[in-house]
């Protein structure tokens, strides 16, 4: 039997109302409520031995790489693509 089920604790957090409303709307779409989401987060913290999301600001190179994926290069021919690939390997 899960020892956490024997005695539950309450967790309180102050968040901006609009953040709460938006989050609840999204969670409802996937069949969760705020309590479920918090429980999932805390479970993942325990299972992973740390926070389950990366909490850091990406550096300039990473941001540029993410943006390049969002805006892929377009080529008018296969040869143009191969030329671009060859140019990238020369760096």
TrEMBL record:
<dbReference type="GO" id="GO:0006355">
    <property type="term" value="P:regulation of DNA-templated transcription"/>
</dbReference>
<dbReference type="GO" id="GO:0044010">
    <property type="term" value="P:single-species biofilm formation"/>
</dbReference>
<keyword id="KW-1277">Toxin-antitoxin system</keyword>
<dbReference type="GO" id="GO:0006351">
    <property type="term" value="P:DNA-templated transcription"/>
</dbReference>
<protein>
    <recommendedName>
        <fullName>RelB/DinJ family addiction module antitoxin</fullName>
    </recommendedName>
</protein>
<dbReference type="InterPro" id="IPR026262">
    <property type="entry name" value="DinJ"/>
</dbReference>
<dbReference type="InterPro" id="IPR007337">
    <property type="entry name" value="RelB/DinJ"/>
</dbReference>
<dbReference type="Pfam" id="PF04221">
    <property type="entry name" value="RelB"/>
</dbReference>
<dbReference type="GO" id="GO:0000987">
    <property type="term" value="F:cis-regulatory region sequence-specific DNA binding"/>
</dbReference>
<dbReference type="InterPro" id="IPR013321">
    <property type="entry name" value="Arc_rbn_hlx_hlx"/>
</dbReference>
<dbReference type="GO" id="GO:0015643">
    <property type="term" value="F:toxic substance binding"/>
</dbReference>
<comment type="similarity">
    <text>Belongs to the RelB/DinJ antitoxin family.</text>
</comment>
